[in-house]
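Worked example 3 (structure in, sequence out).
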């Protein structure tokens, strides 16, 4: 896969001879579970060269550039909150500037405006960045993130969505910028801002985005040294972020939930210890093998993401507990020494390509998921460092459009040649044709031939829609104001008397199937909203009367 070199190499090259021939830089580390990671290269004098690797949640799915304030509460697959504190050092050094993604109904076009208001200001609660509830005319089907939930809900900790959800994909600000790319997995739907058609084109890091590594397993990041990069001294940085990495200095008290906003009961505080950085000096010299490593962390990033400075190690960061703080990357043995990050620069002639994944087959398929198996390439396990797996809807996949397809977020680690491997593909739509492509790559990310399988999802699954089924499907968001009003009425009145309980049980029996139909048709969604309007009006009056009494 061709990498984009994001700077003019001649302008930053050390004054030594240019490298000739093929060379590969490889970084190895063993992360904890659910770790967000970015690796990039700088010259010895601190000039950014290129990004080698970034986890998909940030590089492809816009974790650092989503609408909403950065300190929103969160859950495992929370859809809102511009997480500028994920990789603050990288985001300020990568040489890129992207328009910030803001909510479509934000009239101010300025993420800082809401933060500048006093919590006692009447407009504070409904100010765009502070509001989780968005109208149906701003919401569309969500195929990656899940609906926000209240802690204790059955699916609150789930890593996949238990039911269809609708979210505001935002729009590009004309004034505010950020060092994080927007998400690249979207296609324009009704009620989306036309600007989302630009999201994918704006992101230069999608090509180096990979699924989050499996905790406790050795991960390898390969980077082919581009032609024209000079021999010389460089530094490879690895920045890591982990939600809910709490300690005595960084917890829900020191990093509290935002106050004075609506829907504050959704999600939980997750801002713990800040991003942790590791730095490894490495000499790149054509035709020569060199290496470097580190056992300690170099410092940490700004807890609020406001700047790109590296704060030196101090007592606020946990250093002795595995999986947390400075030990987010494990201390392991390799290359004759202990390391947390091991970097090697070595010749690579590009001929040791992996073979083709064989015998692709569908083991199971539903309206939203498919399980695919394949036989590992026979080129040898050392030649396969991982797999690039992508999905394309309604269009046959080829070598020409493979890079335009959506990467899956499931990581598949290589096994012995000839063994059967499996991959779960989730977030699909019912009754839709998909082409799933798999390419194996080696340690320098040279990719082998493409293997493709065509699948067609089945009809919608029954019994997979959450409570407030029809209202949520009709209004497009579980946090739409009218949906929340109906839910409050259900909880505070219907479920407190016998007739109300009977009505709720009947609704739960027939609601899911009806909602599955309503949610997939805008005509039916519009009709359902019209039918619910008088109900909403009556509920508003009833609740208002209850409050006055």
């Amino acid at each position: 896969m061709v990498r984009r070199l994001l700077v003019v190499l001649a302008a930053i090259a050390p004054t030594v001879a240019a490298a000739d021939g093929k060379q590969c830089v490889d970084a190895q580390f063993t992360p904890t579970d659910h770790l967000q990671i970015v690796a990039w290269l700088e010259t010895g004098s601190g000039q950014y060269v290129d990004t080698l690797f970034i986890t998909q949640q940030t590089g492809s799915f816009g974790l650092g550039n989503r609408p909403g304030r950065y300190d929103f509460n969160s859950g495992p697959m929370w859809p809102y909150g511009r997480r500028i504190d994920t990789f603050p050092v990288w985001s300020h050094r990568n040489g890129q500037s992207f328009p910030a993604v803001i909510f479509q109904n934000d009239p101010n076009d300025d993420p800082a405006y809401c933060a500048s208001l006093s919590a006692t200001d009447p407009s504070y609660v409904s100010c765009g960045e502070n509001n989780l509830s968005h109208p149906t005319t701003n919401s569309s089907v969500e195929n990656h993130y899940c609906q926000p939930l209240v802690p204790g809900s059955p699916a609150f900790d789930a890593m996949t969505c238990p039911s269809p959800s609708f979210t505001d994909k935002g729009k590009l600000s004309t004034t505010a910028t950020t060092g994080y790319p927007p998400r690249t997995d979207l296609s324009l739907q009704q009620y989306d801002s036309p600007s989302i058609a630009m999201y994918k084109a704006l992101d230069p890091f999608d090509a180096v985005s990979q699924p989050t590594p499996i905790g406790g397993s050795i991960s390898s990041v390969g980077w082919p040294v581009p032609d024209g990069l000079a021999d010389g001294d460089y530094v490879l940085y690895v920045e890591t972020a982990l939600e809910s990495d709490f300690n005595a200095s960084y917890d829900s008290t020191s990093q509290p939930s935002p106050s004075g906003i609506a829907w504050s009961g959704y999600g939980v505080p997750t801002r713990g210890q800040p991003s942790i950085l590791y730095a490894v000096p490495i000499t790149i010299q054509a035709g020569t093998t060199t290496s470097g490593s580190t056992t300690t962390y170099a410092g940490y990033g700004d807890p609020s993401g406001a700047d790109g400075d590296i704060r030196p190690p101090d007592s606020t960061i946990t250093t002795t507990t595995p999986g947390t703080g400075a030990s987010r990357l494990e201390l392991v043995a390799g290359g004759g020494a202990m390391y947390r990050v091991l970097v090697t620069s070595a010749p690579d002639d590009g001929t040791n390509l992996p073979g083709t994944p064989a015998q692709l087959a569908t083991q199971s398929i539903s309206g939203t998921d498919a399980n695919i198996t394949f036989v590992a390439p026979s080129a040898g396990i050392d030649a396969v460092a991982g797999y690039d797996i992508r999905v394309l809807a309604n269009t046959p996949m080829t070598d020409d459009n493979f890079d335009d397809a959506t990467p899956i977020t499931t990581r598949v680690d290589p096994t012995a040649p000839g063994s059967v491997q499996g991959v779960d593909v989730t977030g699909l739509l019912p009754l839709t044709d998909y082409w799933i492509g798999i390419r194996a790559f080696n340690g320098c990310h040279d990719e082998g031939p493409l293997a493709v399988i065509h699948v067609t999802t089945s009809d919608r699954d029954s019994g997979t829609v959450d409570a407030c089924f029809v209202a949520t499907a009709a209004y497009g968001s579980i946090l739409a104001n009218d949906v929340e009003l109906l839910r409050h009425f259900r909880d505070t009145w219907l479920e407190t008397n016998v007739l109300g309980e009977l009505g709720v049980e009947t609704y739960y029996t027939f609601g899911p199937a009806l909602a599955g139909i309503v949610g997939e048709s805008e005509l039916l969604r519009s009709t359902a909203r019209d039918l619910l309007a008088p109900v909403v009006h009556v509920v508003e009056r009833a609740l208002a009367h209850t409050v006055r009494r």
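Notes: The chain has a mean pLDDT of 82. DSSP finds nine helices and 23 strands in the chain.
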